From TrEMBL:
It comes from Lysinibacillus mangiferihumi. It comes from the Bacteria. This is Uncharacterized protein. The lineage of its organism: Bacteria, Bacillati, Bacillota, Bacilli, Bacillales.
Length: 68
């Protein structure tokens, strides 16, 4: 997959994750677990794409997560 496509996919997943996390603020308790699970899966995918971009292209993508 070309670099631009990977970067687009990475950014789209970030956007989707932000949208899903907003649902957590407004959903009722019965839906909360569902949205939390979706956010976890999006986060896993982001980490994999980030790792792939760094290994393949030798770039570092800024990460605000200090728990590395």
């Amino acid at each position: 997959m070309p670099f631009e496509d990977k970067l687009r996919k990475y950014n789209q997943i970030k956007i989707d994750l932000l949208k899903m996390s907003k649902h957590l603020d407004f959903c009722d308790e019965t839906e909360k677990n569902l949205y939390q699970n979706i956010c976890v899966e999006y986060t896993k995918e982001l980490k994999e794409i980030k790792k792939s971009l760094e290994q393949t292209y030798g770039i570092e993508i800024c990460n605000s997560d200090t728990r590395k």
